[in-house]
């Protein structure tokens, strides 16, 4: 259960609607067709998520994993839309010949491991929730999502997006929506929604760094590196180091993320710009983590995790609320005179977020 506002899972995708909107208007049907189909599918799934949540139609998982081991199941949708699909790999089974299945299985495991080893959290809900994922979803589906119950990955259209299991941070990003769902339950609109998206980017990046054994200085701080097809002028979906620099492409347009409050985007689209304005708290985390150095999950990540799970972060928290809680968490965990408090405070100052 959540600590704020009850149990309200949402439908969260890794590719922002504004990117798919741009593609859907392209004159080339090879680009517009998959994007239009993805947008329609996402709209349908979002509505279904609302109905199942409002009327409590979703079945709760019954099996629980041992506290220190994941319980993973991978399904194959076989390019159809019915979930979960056909079971193709269970926990402890050897890898098969399908690389997508193997990547999904490994990504679920890496996410479980980071939360367990770094934060002593037992799966997404903190209580050994089984981790289910479906691959090869629909035809040319240009997205990956967490629907409140499981992970789902499209294969991409091959023109703009490749297989969505390729970047491990995409897997970690979507599963972290589940962690947020079971903890602070941040409302998926405006600044609370941008914080929701940012938490997923933060821990997606940390899962990637933990898996690769990278320090904050060694990491690329990109979300979705390897996802864009070679023809695209871009390196990822988002950059935490330099928001607004992830792509600049004739087809996709330019990455619209701001790095500071000076460029905050006010819009009614994308749930009030949740995928756009997340660049601001993303950049604050990057600044704090790199100022502290070492492994980002150990200090900056711990502070962010403390806030997400501590019970004081309300579901409608604004950037200033979150910033204030990170400062409080840094002080409580590391002390008044530590570099952690200074790094966190300065990071929010640099992105223009006032600390109450």
Features:
globular, 356 residues, two-stranded antiparallel sheet, alpha+beta
Would you mind describing this structure in some detail?
The chain contains 10 helices and 10 strands. The protein is an alpha+beta fold and about 350 residues long. The strands form 3 sheets. Strands 1-5-6-4-2-3 form a 6-stranded mixed sheet, covered by helices on one side. Strands 7-8 form a two-stranded antiparallel sheet. A two-stranded antiparallel sheet has the order 9-10. Strand 5 and strand 6 form a beta hairpin. The relative contact order is 0.12.
User: What's the pLDDT, averaged over the residues?
Assistant: 91
Give a count of the beta strands, DSSP E runs of length 2 or more. 10
Silhouette: globular
Taken in chain order, the helices and strands follow as EHHEEHEEEHHEEEEHHHHH
* Side-by-side strand order of the widest sheet: 1-5-6-4-2-3
Produce a short descriptive summary.
This protein is α+β, with helices and mostly antiparallel strands.
Which SSEs are present, and which pair or pack?
Elements: E1 12-13, H1 17-24, H2 29-54, E2 72-76, E3 86-90, H3 99-119, E4 131-135, E5 144-146, E6 151-153, H4 168-182, H5 190-212, E7 222-223, E8 238-239, E9 248-249, E10 253-254, H6 270-273, H7 279-292, H8 300-309, H9 319-334, H10 339-350
Parallel strand pairs: 2-4, 4-6
Antiparallel strand pairs: 1-5, 2-3, 5-6, 7-8, 9-10
Helix pairs in contact: 1-2, 3-4, 4-5, 5-7, 7-10, 8-9, 9-10
């Amino acid at each position: 259960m959540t600590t704020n506002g009850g149990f309200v899972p949402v439908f969260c995708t890794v590719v922002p609607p504004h990117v798919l909107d741009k593609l859907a208007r392209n004159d080339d049907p090879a680009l517009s067709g998959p994007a239009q189909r993805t947008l329609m599918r996402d709209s349908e799934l979002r509505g279904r998520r609302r109905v199942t949540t409002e009327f409590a139609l979703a079945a709760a998982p019954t099996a629980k994993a041992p506290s220190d081991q994941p319980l993973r199941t991978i399904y194959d949708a076989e390019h159809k839309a019915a979930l979960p699909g056909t079971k193709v790999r269970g926990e402890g089974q050897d890898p098969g010949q399908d690389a997508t299945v193997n990547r999904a299985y490994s990504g679920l495991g890496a996410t479980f491991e980071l939360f367990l080893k770094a934060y002593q959290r037992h799966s997404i809900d903190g209580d050994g929730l089984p981790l289910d994922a479906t691959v090869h979803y629909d035809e040319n589906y240009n997205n990956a999502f967490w629907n409140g119950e499981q992970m789902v990955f499209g294969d991409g259209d091959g023109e703009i997006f490749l297989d969505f299991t390729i970047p491990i941070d995409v897997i970690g990003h979507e599963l972290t929506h589940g962690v947020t769902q079971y903890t602070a339950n941040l409302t998926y609109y405006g600044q609370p929604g941008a914080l929701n998206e940012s938490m997923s980017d933060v821990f997606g990046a940390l899962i990637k760094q933990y898996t690769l054994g990278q320090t904050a200085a060694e990491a690329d701080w990109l979300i979705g590196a390897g996802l864009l097809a070679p023809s695209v002028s871009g390196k990822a979906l988002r950059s935490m180091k330099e928001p607004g620099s992830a792509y600049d492409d004739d087809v996709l347009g330019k990455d619209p993320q701001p790095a500071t409050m000076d460029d905050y985007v006010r819009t009614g689209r994308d749930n009030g710009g949740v995928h756009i304005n997340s660049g601001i708290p993303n950049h604050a985390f990057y600044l704090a983590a790199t100022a502290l150095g070492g492994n980002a999950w150990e200090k900056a990540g711990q502070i962010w995790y403390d806030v997400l799970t501590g019970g004081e972060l309300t579901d409608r928290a604004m950037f200033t609320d979150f910033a204030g809680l990170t400062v409080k968490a840094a002080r409580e965990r590391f002390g008044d005179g530590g570099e952690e408090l200074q790094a966190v405070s300065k990071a929010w100052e640099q992105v223009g977020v006032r600390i109450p």
